[in-house]
Amino acid sequence: MAKNTRNTRGRIISAAWELFYEQGYDDTTVEEIIERSATSKGSFYHYFDGKDALLSSLSYLFDEEYARLQQELPAEMDAFERLLALNHALFTMIENRISLDLLARLLSSQLITKGDKHLLDRDRLYFKYLRQIVLEGQQSGQLRRELTVNEIVKLYALAERALMYDWCLCGGEYSLTAYADKMMPMFLQELR
Questions:
Q1: Pick from 156, 189, 118, 50: which is nearest to 41 by CA?
Q2: Per residue in 46-79, pLDDT tens?
Q3: Phi, then psi, of 75 in degrees rounded to 5
Q4: Domains and CATH numbers, the chain
Q5: How far apart (Å, rounded) are the C-alpha atoms in residues 22 and 31?
């Protein structure tokens, strides 16, 4: 994908999710998304069939956060700490930028979709970065070697999805980040 294509698509996605958070999904129009993203109607419909198609683009925002974190996390941080830091940052972003309703819609859309399951796309930066952290952790003796890299990554992703799903089920009655900060170390402890 060319850089200009990524930038235009990314601007549309970012603008849409800002508006969804600010005023709700149902009250956001395609026209407002186009205006906020400073793109055109033609550009919008080149990338998306309509507003509903943007629901599956949340994984793009998650990957943008991972790209940022990949540059910012200290290199001396061990693999276990890095996994926990990534989870903390992602869940903080979710709490601050993604409405509970939209996260629930994304999770439910992934259950019923017959097409791509974006959250499970192994080519996403999310999975690539996790595989890199786990591999480095295994090579340095910080993480267990009896499990494959992919098994550990799957376990981590499973724990994250479980926490997000429970948070949605409970109507956001607790802090997702604070709860994950307490639970993820316990979920992942056996990986050391």
A1: 50
A2: 999 988 888 777 778 788 888 989 999 988 899 9
A3: -65, -30
A4: 1-48 (1.10.10.60), 55-191 (1.10.357.10)
A5: 15
